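Team,

Forwarding the record for the chain on the shared tracking sheet. I've put the sequence and predicted structure together so nobody has to dig through attachments.
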Amino acid sequence: MASTMTQIPEWHLKADYVETCNCDFGCPCNFDGFPTYGFCRALVLYHIRSGHYGNDTMET
């Protein structure tokens, strides 16, 4: 029986991250808890400043 392994390309990124939601500060949803007010409505933002995936490079 032959075995095959898939190579995962090397990757790295530098990004800014912003998150806000309607829960109390320190959103319990991020820690496997229940939403403060019955549901969690969130806005999440990533701004990728630089990085690479395999041979592809990106910079802003």
